[in-house]
Amino acid sequence: MNWIYENLRDKYMTPVVSKSLQPQARFVEAHLHYNIEALYILDGEMTVRFHNDTGIYHETTIHAGEILICNSGCIHETITGGPFSNYLAFIPPNILPSPLLLPVGKTPACPVSDTTGVIRQLLEQMLHITEQLEHGILPPEIAHIPYVLAKSLPHARLTSLASAILALLYDQLTESLIDISSPHGKADLMKYIYQNYRNPDLTVKTLCTAFGYTEKALSRFFIERTGMGVKQYVNTLRIADAKALLLETEDSVDCIAAQVGCDCTRTFYRIFAAQTGQTPNDFRQAKRRE
User: Fold this and answer.
1) In the chain, which segments carry CATH 1.10.10.60?
2) Helix then strand then coil, % of the chain, to nearest 5
3) Most C-beta atoms within 10 A of its C-beta, which of 66, 131, 143, 287?
4) pLDDT tens-digit profile of 201-218?
5) Which CATH superfamily is domain 4-179 in?
6) Half-sphere exposure of 246 toward its Cβ, with a 13 Å CA cutoff?
7) Measured between alpha carbons, how far is residue 53 from residues 30, 31, 56, 74, 215 in Å?
């Protein structure tokens, strides 16, 4: 089957929420991303289809006041009929506390009803913080705190709210998980890389051995799906991770390089400069001045 890897969703290192208003029927083709996607319907309804490597294996419809979690790495498509509005929450799985992590490659079969309205309130708070961050506005209650410290607090608040939403849903979600994994599926390959990109031993050779590809076939698949080679894709994940660590921690560049899977600091500097046009230290200082 054909599906798209949607790296736009994956670029966010903190939870992002948007309120999407759709005036007419809309079809979004099959895609995957590694953020957890929470679909909350305010009005109307939406049909979601889940795929594995052989085709559609499950279809469900979400109605107003219901939420559906599309877990990390799930191939899915959405169909809407008529006017509706919904919240879309994109939650990076690696920022959630480990007890709340849903198994990668699985997704809940059924939507969950927000009978108390608590989830909607949490999403509205996330939306408010997201809008403030987009406009560079700090909440007034933390305006007196030094900016370098204060700007990290909204992100921490978003993480807390996202964790609260999944905690509220966790019991119901774990009762209805469907396993869509296949031993050598392309989706499983992408999931494996996302889970292991911090491992310096992750190489083209180890991927070929684990998933039964020749190096030529693996390279062709990555170029077709992501527009880049395997090494470049892995380095993109590592540099995105490193950029977040540079801004959110005081760790040294050497330490951050090791954390994201680069066992040679000189190589890390070269890759970072190639992708950003700056050294890690220059990037950190420039962003903090902003």
Assistant:
1) 197-289
2) 45, 25, 30
3) 66
4) 888 888 887 777 788 888
5) Jelly Rolls (2.60.120.10)
6) 23
7) 11, 12, 9, 11, 21
* Longest CA span, the chain: 57
Q: Which residues pair with 47 in a beta bridge?
A: 61, 79
pLDDT digits (tens, 9 = 90+) for 238-258: 998 899 889 888 899 999 999
Fold entry, domain 197-289: Arc Repressor Mutant, subunit A (1.10.10)
- Give CA–CA dist 14/62, Å, rounded: 25
First to last CA, the chain: 44
Residue spans in the chain of domains classed CATH 2.60.120.10: 4-179
CA gap 19, 22 in Å, rounded: 10
**Residue 263, number of CB atoms within 10 A of its CB:** 10
Number of Cα atoms under 13 Å in the Cβ half of residue 117? 0
